[in-house]
Design goal:
The protein has 425 residues and is an alpha+beta fold. It has helices at 35-47, 144-149, 162-172, 175-187, 227-252, 274-277, 280-292, 308-313, 348-352, 365-378, 392-402, 410-423; strands at 2-8, 15-19, 24-28, 66-72, 77-85, 90-91, 103-107, 113-116, 140-142, 151-153, 156-159, 212-215, 218-221, 260-266, 298-304, 324-331, 334-339. The chain contains 12 helices and 17 strands. Helix 3 (162-172) packs across helix 4, helix 4 (175-187) packs antiparallel against helix 7 (280-292) and helix 10 (365-378) runs antiparallel to helix 11 (392-402).
Length: 425
């Protein structure tokens, strides 16, 4: 579990400090302010490998860029700091095997995944005089294509990929396919449950059987399913594959499977309809607990998102002792980070106009401008109004153009207009 992350001279701000909760952590903010960057650094802090490009330090003779972090490992709490070696253009890391942080899974917004498995990636072990330990990958990094078609390292087949494994598991009818089916159902929308159908051949040129989904309108080969369904299918597959392989590796190593899982997700709502957005985070927590088959498993999620419905969806389960919400602010050229005190907003509109997303009105920009002018007019601040909205008639015409007839702002405006008309009668 990642408890703290402190950045100095690296990233979008001079300093960034996170104290993560042990369960749900939500990171919001505008595009380009550093949400994905924080997930990349969180991955590196726990695994000592980069899922993409290494973090780029700020430069200056008086700067010493550092990344420091604290996480709860299997047997102890780990506190470390790393600075950037400008001569070697690399972040320094402590020699030897790091403490075991449990399993770390990173779902990237581009459809790729990274997996660090304590049974299969627990650092590279050098040969000793009496034991030869084979070299292990630092981590498993999948592009979106490799999730579907498989991952290789030289001549080694590290993962068969979604298409091959799904069909193989289905033909075996064993625990892997049962778990995959359960995970798909939990992650599904209530209106469109994802249920596997019979695999089918879809091309003369491709000899593979392709997984299918049984939809209300017929059976659909998974490669032709919607972007949102493919994203959920890939997520379900990677979670099941990771856990199944971890269990097998743990058996070979004669050790217990891990009970610590950290799940990093970048824009989990990407491609998802609002029905799916409303259910995805609570569903993920249920999936992780179900897969480990133990209520003592500790599952931490760190999620970067733009979706107000996602915040609304966790209101019933949010626990201030376990969960956190952070937001990045951009004022001029300065980026800052705030931890938002939890407060239920009630609905999506409430979240849109809250400190988290910061809209003045949960409407179009034109409607927001018209309402702001109307409210200024009602307060008597007429001198500050723009020329095209500086009279009651002009504002009324613009409100009629941009607002629906049932918009809740109309009663306020009409009552005020009638009072002004009565005063001038």
């Amino acid at each position: 579990m990642l408890e703290e992350l402190h950045l100095r001279g690296v990233g979008p701000a001079p300093e960034l400090d996170f104290d993560f909760g042990p369960r749900i952590n939500i990171i919001t903010g505008d595009n380009g302010v550093g949400k994905s960057f924080v997930l990349d650094v969180a991955w590196w802090a726990m695994t000592r490998s980069w899922a993409g490009y290494p973090a780029n330090p700020q430069r200056g003779l008086d700067l010493k860029p550092t990344i420091s972090f604290i996480y709860q490992a299997k047997a102890k709490k780990v506190s470390q700091a790393s600075d950037f070696d400008f001569q070697n253009q690399a972040w320094r890391r402590k020699e030897g095997r790091p403490a075991n942080p449990g399993m770390v899974v990173y779902a990237r917004v581009d459809g790729g995944f990274s997996v660090w498995d304590p049974a299969r990636n627990y650092w590279r072990i050098a040969p000793s005089q009496d034991v030869f330990a084979p070299d292990r990958p630092e981590a498993y990094h999948f592009s979106s294509k490799q999730v579907w078609d498989g991952l290789k390292e030289g001549e080694k087949h590290l993962c068969n990929g979604l298409i091959a494994d799904w069909v193989s598991w289905q033909k075996e009818g064993g625990p892997a396919f049962s778990q995959l089916s359960s995970v798909l159902e939990v992650l599904s929308s209530e209106s469109e449950p994802l249920r596997p159908g019979k695999p089918m051949r879809i091309s003369l040129e491709d000899v593979r059987d392709i997984p299918t989904l049984r939809m209300p309108y017929g059976t659909v080969p998974l490669v032709y399913a919607s972007s949102g369904m493919r994203r959920i299918a890939a997520l379900a597959y990677l979670l099941v594959w990771t856990w199944q392989e971890h269990q097998r590796a743990s058996e070979l190593l004669n050790q217990r499977p891990t009970s610590e899982i950290t799940f990093l997700v970048d824009e989990i709502e990407a491609h998802l309809h609002v029905r799916w957005q409303r259910a995805i985070v609570p569903a993920l927590l249920r999936v992780m607990q179900t897969m480990t088959k133990t209520q003592t498993a500790r599952v931490q999620t760190i999620i970067a998102t733009h979706a107000p419905l996602l915040l609304a969806s966790i209101e019933p389960i949010f626990d201030e002792e376990k969960d956190r919400v952070f937001t990045f602010d951009l004022e001029g050229s300065t980026v800052s980070l705030r931890k938002i005190p939890w407060s239920k907003q009630g609905d999506v509109v409430g979240w849109l106009v809250s400190d988290v997303f910061g809209l003045k009105q949960a409407r179009s920009r034109e409607a927001e401008r018209a309402i702001e002018a109307a409210e200024a007019f009602m307060r008597g601040e007429i001198a500050a109004l723009p020329e095209d909205l500086d009279t009651q008639d002009k504002i009324h015409r613009e409100l009629k153009r941009v607002l629906a007839g049932h918009d809740p702002f109309w009663p306020r405006w009409i009552v005020t207009a009638e009072k002004r008309a009565a005063l001038h009668a």
